[in-house]
Amino acid sequence: MNGYQLVKVELKGFRGFPEQGGTQEFKFDEPCTLLLGKQGSGKSSVLCAVEWCFFGDRVARIGDTGIRERKDWLVRNNRSRASIVEVTLKRDEQVLIVYRCNRRLQGRPRFYYQTDGGEFHEDESGLRAVLGIELPDYMSCVHLHQEVISALLVETPGERKNALDRLMGLAPLRNLLDGIHGSRISEQLRDIDNQFGGIETQLEAGMQVKRSDLERATKDAGEHGIVQDELSLGGGKKHIGAIKDQIQKFAGDYGLPAPDLPECKDLEDMESFIDAATAAVRKLRNEQPDMAHQQHMLRRKKELGTLKVNYEGKKETLQDLRTKTEKLTNSYGDLPELKDRLKKVEKGLLPEARNRQNEISNRAGVIREALKLLGSPQGKSINRCPVCEQTISPEDVRRHLEKWQEEMKDKLASTEAEIKKLEEEETNLKKVISQLRQLQSQTQIAAKDVSESTKAIADALKVEISESQDPLTLLSKGMADLEDELEKVGKVVEQSNARLNSMEDGLADVRRINTILRIQRDMEELSKIKETNEYEQVAKARKSAHDFADLSESIYEAVQTVLQRNAKSRIASTRDAISSIFRELAQRSDFPDLRIDPVSYEVIAVRGDKSEIAQRFLNKGDINCAALSIFLALATSKDLSHNLGFMILDDPSQTLDSTHNERLAGVLDHVLGNRQLIIATSEENFAKELRNSLTKKKQVYFMRDWSDDTGPKVEIE
Amino acid sequence: MDYESCEMLKAIRSRHPSEFGKACQVLLAITCCRLGFRNVVERRSQGVDIDARSHPAFADYSFEVKTTHSSSVSIGTKDVEGLEAKAKDSFRTAYAVLRPGLLSDWIIAGSKGIPAGNIPLGRFEARELPDIQCQVRRVFPHVLKEHAAEILRIARNEVQGYLQKCLADEKRKCRQR
Fold first, then answer.
1. Per residue in B78-129, pLDDT tens?
2. B chain contacts of residue A189, beta-carbon cutoff 8 Å
3. What are the structural domain ranges in chain B?
4. Measured between alpha carbons, how far is A303 from A482 in angstroms, rounded to an integer?
5. Does the pLDDT of residue A702 top 80, yes or no?
6. Backbone phi, psi, residue A92, to 5°
7. How far is A527 from chain B (nearest CA, A)?
């Protein structure tokens, strides 16, 4: 059974064929059809229309085709409302029509295929089953795209590998691998694991802290005589029972109400019991009668001590004042004497002295005036006393007067000294009198204070204190009695306190046990973190992530295996054919053979034992030959079976010189033996070679004068 | 894994770092004996680490034992090939992976589909064999507790001798049962 032959392609509104140009029909009645025309004349659009009709919009996606130029690739002509392509195929006597439109028109489905005018089938996969081919294989062994040839010429190894993938029909698998790899699942997983590890680290650190706390608490318990067996809930309960008994008995012994203490069943109760029992012991301590008595006596002791200090202070003040008074009196006399003396100085001695001073001053003035007169010119003639009229000798008078003047001076000086002394005495007397009066007043107050202190002591001791009794002696005796009594009460209180202290010590032990049990419980809870809902949720989420990663990793490995197997299988099945075609096309003497290395996945030029990556030294024409060799070998391989009996070559001669063109035409003539060929070229030389070399009948379409409105003008030769 | 077991494993690793992996391997072999495998073979050098056969309920298992303290395990081509060969001999092949930690434990994971390379623990967890794993996790702490003190006491070059003797005793008891 032969493969499907291409019979007819009708297209409208598809890429280079605008709606306005009407439906263009291309018939492929002969074994070979040539589409000739310049670049941009619409040749590739005709060829791609077949591809789109079979495989739909997948051909417009870079992910499905692996062709970079297919990014943003427009199916619909931008001046058209709809793209319609109908392809007619024939296999033996069976006619297969495939229709595709980018939207529903006049009730027709957007896609269908029909066999021998039968019913419309709208399932895309059904067509692929009929044709026996998927898009990747169609692109690797039916339709050679010009982009694939040019991509094999690039220098980047990654891109060369991709180009080879496309030639080998493995691009979708490679895309899948790249997609999984690009999703960075392993990095995300590492992050998740790190975060999860962080939880474990924190948990372990927490456990370490708790372990240290436990060791410390156990050591502390051991130092307080708690044995290992008691470090349990049972041990704690035993202690609690003993403490409870002690408390009840103590309350009974002292006639105090028995405290209400909670039961202890678990660890939480233990804590409540410790709090309640601590409060109860504190209350018993405060309320025990001996303690109250002791407190009272201590207060009284303090009170008497204060009275004593107070009395002693007051007494000392009074004594001090009296000493000062006595000292003053001894020095200056008593107050009446001082007052008399002051009166005498103020009223007698001082005025008398001042009078004398005045009198002397007056006399001295008269003498001074007389001496002044006698000393004047007029005075020398005076010989009679102006007062008594007696005859005087001025000289004698002057001498007497001068003598008197001297006497007056002496008297005045002594009188002034006397006055000064009396004034000082007056001041001093006033000061002393003031001091004595002040001391008298202070002494009275101090005496009153002492009296009040004495009264306070009498009140405190509840006795009458007569003048003859020493309050201090009485106070000391009272205090001594109090001390005796305090000592007796202290002993009683000490005994009851010892019982209470024992209870508190017991409670401290229970607290130690409680602490240990709590730490143990915390450690147990920490170690059971895996049983918590939160942990389970986190672990579940982590497991889901790992399950997903495992799945994707498994898919990755499976795809990689399939990819490698497919690549190896295709390389193996086409090895000889590739080499043969390349030998014929390139005819290089240095590296005549070509093969694909299954490990490095590179196109290798070979000569005997020598081999070299083809791209490194082959010229563009030779690399084009390499791409054509691979494609033609795959297209004609008997191992790759599909139901298409035609081959489409889009501009296969790019970068080939005339010699290569001639050889390629020769090779294609061989291909024509078992394949219908549709070849598009813009190169006149190659077209000429094809016309000359292809021995079977040919149909030639000329496409020229392409315009935006009508597309190309198509002529049949 | 419980805190006590975790601490014991860490102590063993700290005291005998070079013997830790092999010690865990023998302890796992003893665990297999305790689980009721009547025929347990533990290999120190060549071949898959443990073969555990003749259990009334479980299939015959072949374990490749791995210990780690990170979040991944290095699987060698030899490990993969060894287990593949065991699978052809009708063993159920598994990796037994131990990472001492409070949130970690033995992972007993089917080996099918795990390639050679540095494999994250999560990938083993995705293939865990819950029945046998659950039993190993249950019994291993008891085995560890029994032998940890002695392993920690003895010198490094005595560890293997001691554990092999313990394994031999365990096998004998197993046969007697």
1. 999 999 999 999 899 999 999 998 888 999 999 998 999 999 898 899 899 9
2. 120, 122
3. 3-172
4. 11
5. yes
6. 50, -115
7. 6
User: What does the DSSP 8-state code read for residue A598?
Assistant: T
**B122 and A193 in contact by Cβ < 8 A?**
yes
Task: State the pLDDT at residue B68.
Answer: 94
- Average pLDDT of every residue of chain A: 88
HSE, side-chain direction, 13 A CA sphere, residue A74: 14
ipTM of the complex in this document: 0.82
Angle between helices B20-35 and B3-15 (to 10 degrees): 140
Closest C-alpha among B54, B83, B79, B64 to residue B21: B64
Count of Cβ atoms closer than 10 Å to residue A627 Cβ: 25
Per-residue pLDDT tens over the stretch A479-528: 999 999 999 988 988 888 899 999 999 999 999 999 999 999 998 888 88
CB B171 within 8 A of CB B163: no
Mutate: best of B68, B73, B102, partner A, most A CBs <10 A: B102
End-to-end Cα, chain A, rounded Å: 32
- Rounded CA-CA distance A399/A416 in Å is 26
A88 conformational bin, left if phi > 0, alpha if psi -120 to 50, beta if neither: beta
Q: Which residues contact B88 (CB under 8 A, 6 or more apart)?
A: none
Q: Are A281 and A244 in contact (CB under 8 A)?
A: no
The answer to whether B126 faces chain A, any CB pair under 8 Å, is yes
* Residue A122 in contact with partner chain B when CB distance is under 8 A: no
Please count the CA atoms within 13 angstroms of the CA of A180 that sit on its side-chain side: 18
Interface of A with B in 546-575 (CB under 8 A): 546-547, 549-551, 553-554, 557
Please provide residue A400's backbone torsions phi and psi, each rounded to the nearest 5 degrees.
Answer: -60, -45
Q: Quick check: A196 and B103 CB within 8 A?
A: yes
- Coil, strand or helix at A542: helix
Give the per-residue pLDDT at A639. 63
- Looking at CA atoms only, how far is residue B9 from chain A in angstroms? 14
CATH code of the domain made up of B3-172: 3.40.1350.10
Alpha helices in A462-470 (DSSP H): none
Two structure tokens written together for A570:
């295709």
What's the alpha-carbon Rg for chain A, to the nearest Å?
A: 68
